[in-house]
Design a protein that fits this description.
globular, 5 helices, Immunoglobulin-like, 2 domains, 183 residues, five-stranded antiparallel β-sheet
C-alpha cells in the first residue's frame, strides 16, 4: 500500500514539474506573439492604428471593441523615442511592452494630468548620457527606461458609446512616436 502511495506521489510531483516547465517555456516557444503579428502592419518607430476587432479576425487576442487601439513598434538602437499622445475625452492609456510581451510601464490620462501624454523612452545607457539640466524636473519631463531595445507601445482610447468611436480614433490619429537622434 505504501509503495502505491509513493508511486502516486511521485507521479503528481513529476506532473507538476512538467506542467510548470511547460507554462514557463510557452512564451519563448510561441511563434505568433504580439510583436510578430504586428510586423507586417506596423513599421518601426511609427504609430499605426489597428482595425476594430471582429469575432473571426482580430490582430491581437482579447481586444476590447470599446477601445480604439494604436501601436508603435519601437527600436531604440537609433536613439530615444519621443511619444506624444493627445488624450481622448473619455479615457486614454499607454502601455509599454518588451519584445517578449512583458509589460514594464503603463500610464493613463488621469496620471499624466495634462491634455497630452508626453514622454521619452530610452535605454538606461541613453538615459545616463543625458546632460543634467538643473531647471528641468521630473514633472516637466517624463523619462521611461526600457529594459530592451525593441518592443511595443500600445495606446488605447475609450469610446464609452459606439457613436463616440470616431472621437477616440481621431485622438489616436494625432499620436506620434518618433526617434530623437543621438547627439
Amino acid at each position: 500500500m505504501i509503495r502505491w502511495l509513493l508511486w502516486l506521489l511521485g507521479g503528481i510531483v513529476l506532473g507538476g514539474v512538467v506542467h510548470l516547465a511547460t507554462v514557463l517555456a510557452m512564451p519563448r516557444a510561441a511563434t505568433k506573439d504580439a510583436y510578430s503579428r504586428l510586423v507586417p502592419i506596423a513599421p518601426v518607430n511609427t504609430m499605426v492604428q489597428l482595425p476594430a476587432p471582429a469575432a473571426q479576425s482580430s490582430i491581437m487576442p482579447f481586444m476590447d471593441p470599446a477601445f480604439a487601439t494604436a501601436v508603435c513598434r519601437y527600436d531604440l538602437s537609433g536613439g530615444s523615442i519621443k511619444l506624444n499622445a493627445p488624450v481622448s475625452e473619455a479615457y486614454t492609456s499607454v502601455t509599454f511592452y518588451t519584445r517578449e510581451s512583458v509589460a514594464y510601464y503603463a500610464i493613463n490620462d488621469r496620471a499624466a494630468g495634462r491634455r497630452a501624454i508626453e514622454l521619452d523612452l530610452m535605454t538606461p545607457e541613453q538615459h545616463a548620457q543625458l546632460p543634467e539640466e538643473e531647471d528641468v524636473t521630473a514633472a516637466d519631463r517624463l523619462i521611461i527606461d526600457s529594459p530592451s531595445t525593441t518592443g511595443l507601445i500600445v495606446l488605447r482610447a475609450l469610446a464609452p458609446e459606439p457613436g463616440l468611436m470616431p472621437m477616440a480614433r481621431s485622438a489616436l490619429a494625432a499620436a506620434q512616436c518618433r526617434v530623437e537622434q543621438v547627439q
